[in-house]
Design brief:
Number of strands: 7
Radius of gyration: 16 Å
Bound molecules: ligand 76T, magnesium ion
Largest sheet: 7 strands, mixed
Mean pLDDT: 98
Order of helices and strands: HHHEHEHEHHEHEHHEE
Number of helices: 10
Low-confidence stretches: none
Structural class: alpha/beta
Oligomer: single chain
Length: about 210
């Protein structure tokens, strides 16, 4: 049977990237998705904004909702300090299996814990199952209608502390209007929009960075 898009993306990584070299994995995916077939990675343009926020926060604990093929997982993990931990959650088992191989090819498996499941079930269990108190950085890139309910759930579960940073992909395309309204109007967040483009296209999109004020 015909391969899947994630399988073909992994093939491009294994063919064109150097094992243990995260930069070459990022380049191989961007080249494949720009020249061969589009895929919903955060991409190189928004990826640079992601890099600058990760470097600024210098997080010890990171939560990523929506792993997909592991592109943003690799972008984040390659910038983490030695004992930092990234927990990434993926709903689709077949896609998670590809992401594990992409993360391993980059040599970053020691910094990354990939969990298969749905955010609504997983978020309430994080504290006891993973020994995490709070997250310094959360990257939201899963189903866009889940951004708001999951943010409220993280607040309720005490997973955010004064200064925790939420960074949300796709707040324009496909869009997360209820989430934007919430973080921009709530007195508990200081929010800022980073204008960019939908990965590998000229369509407008952007990242919303929101600092939890406690
Ligand atoms: O929709 C998107 N991504 C989310 C997504 C999508 C599908 C499957 C999953 C399954 N993974 C999953 C689900 C639920 C979960 N709960 N916790 C973890 C978790 C993980 C996740 C998306 C779309 C576009 C886009 C498409 C088309 C177009 F024209 C323009 C733009 C661009 C993006 O950058 C995007 O990020
Ligand atoms: Mg996205």
């Amino acid at each position: 049977t015909r391969s899947t898009r994630p399988q073909r993306l992994l093939g491009a990584v294994q063919k064109n990237a150097t094992r243990g070299d995260p930069g070459s994995v990022i380049q191989a995916i961007d080249h494949y998705c720009r020249n061969k077939e589009w895929a919903m990675n955060v991409g190189d343009e928004k990826g640079c904004i992601l890099d600058s926020v990760v470097s600024e926060v210098n997080p010890a604990t990171v939560l990523e909702l929506g792993t997909y093929c592991g592109y943003s997982t690799v972008r984040i993990a390659r910038l983490l300090p030695p004992h930092a931990k990234l927990i990434t959650l993926e709903f689709n088992p077949a896609v998670a299996a590809i992401a594990r191989q992409v993360i391993a090819w980059a040599g970053l498996e020691d910094k990354v814990q990939l969990v298969e499941g749905a955010s609504g079930d997983f978020i309430p269990r994080i504290k006891e199952q993973f020994g995490v108190k709070t997250f310094d950085l959360v990257f939201l890139d899963h189903w866009k209608e889940y951004y708001l309910p999951d943010t409220k759930l993280m607040e309720e579960c005490g997973l955010l502390r004064k200064g925790s940073v939420l960074l949300a992909d796709n707040v324009v395309c496909p869009g997360a209007p209820d989430y934007l309204e919430y973080v921009r109007s709530s007195p508990r967040y200081e929010s800022r929009y980073f204008k960019s483009h939908l990965e590998y296209t000229k369509v407008e999109d952007g990242l919303e960075k929101s600092v939890f004020l406690g």
